[in-house]
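[agent] plan:
  1. take the single chain provided in the ticket
  2. run structure prediction with default settings
  3. attach structure tokens to the ticket
  4. add a short note for the reviewer (M.T.)
[agent] executing step 1
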Amino acid sequence: MRVTRSKRLLVFIFLLSSFWSYDAFAQISKTREELERQKAEIQAKLREFDAILRQTTATKKESIGSLNAVTRQFQAQTRLVNTLDREVKVLDTEIRETEAKINQLERDLKELKAEYSRMIYNTSKLNRNLSIVAFVFSSTNFNQLYMRLKYLKQYTDSRKQQAEQIEKVTAQLAEERVQLDARKADKVQILAEAQEERKKLEALRKEQQVIVNSLTKKERTIKSQITATKKQQQQLEAMIRAAIEEEIRLAEAAAAKANSTATKRPDSSMPMTPEVAALSSSFAGNRGRLPWPVETGFITQTYGDHPHPTLRGITVPSDGINIRTQPNSTVRTVFDGVVAKVASMPGYGETVLIKHGEYYTLYSKLSSTSVKTGQTVKSKDVIGKVATNSDGEAEIHFQTWKGLQKMDPASWISSR
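[agent] step 2 finished; step 3 output follows
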């Protein structure tokens, strides 16, 4: 009976330790690894922000562009602080789970030692009353002799297993205590890091408010700038539409020829040869994976209509995205294609429109271009350099189109 009870105890402790180790901590470790990955990505983005914005410190002015940049910084800094807070919560959970596991192991160890002591005591009692040899050979028949030998073997094995399990639980207990100390140290470090990042967040909030207050006083000037910008956007859109319409007209004229291999699919904006259709399909298949038109940078203006950051009731439209980058950065095409148009546009500077089958990408706010209309380009080929405006901001404007339909460029380029 005593041997059976010891075995049940050993099995129970083994199963409990295995379950706790795998189930309780696997998910927590995965969550923390994910948070560490997110933290590293945000910190890399913030370093990129700092590197780019440091270039314009000397010429920095309180403008919508600078407000957008600080706002993006503030958003990224907020995400970092929130990530650190979540990491502290995960560590708190890990600490509680580890402490609970330590308490359970201590109870298990106490029970194992108590059971082992009872086994030693019972053996010593047996030895006092009767020797092992006498106990075995005092059997009245062969069957009793066999059962006594079997019992002694089981008892010896059980004692050995009990001793091994005590060693194992003791080692596991020591390991858990080391892990607990490490997690507590990690928590102290992350709390200190979070405190520092909150200071940076507050500094960005104050900087953001200073710019907002300054721009609010310039309402008339800003409204005039918005009117001029909208006119420039309309001129840019008219140029794009005219260029795409011309490409469609040429494609339809070529398809009308007797020996043409071009066909028009129901979902297509124009007839395409097999080669052009393959290029178009390849471009579409790379949605979300296209390289950025500049090597480093961050988006300061997203696609679509947005409320003005300082003027109530004013909506600012955007047909593409603005990417802030290093001054004099090279601009590159995001996919294979053919240059459909090179132009100089009011408010947008040098502009390049590239055709990728029935898809188009637009690159504007360039200081110079290095391609010409009709030229074939490959992905990441340099097509020009980004311009720096009067506020010291180096920013490229990027658009994507399918035929005459505008699309959100952020959904096409890879995430950062």
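[agent] step 4 note for reviewer: Helices lie at 2-54, 64-129, 132-137, 142-216, 219-255, 274-285.
[agent] ticket updated
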